[in-house]
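WARN no homologs supplied; continuing
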Amino acid sequence: MSNNEMISVPRDEVERLRQLQTAFNEWVDKSQWARKGAVADELGMHLADVIKQRFDTLRAERDQLQADLTARDERIDQLEQSQGENP
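OK structure emitted
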């Protein structure tokens, strides 16, 4: 192996490590909100599990709100129809 080849390997490894560091730092920056707002139930949980649990909770709340809104819209439609029939 020539000197240039021996130097090239560490340079490639340094570049690979820089890319990993950049990806890691970006993940930390973008997931910091989940760490700052941790609650007691989340202590000891993996960060990805915390994010998924919060996402699932928000999705369930959204679905319930959508169902409530749909039910209210249907009730308004019924009231409007009954008022049209009984002026």
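Residues 1-37 form one domain.
OK
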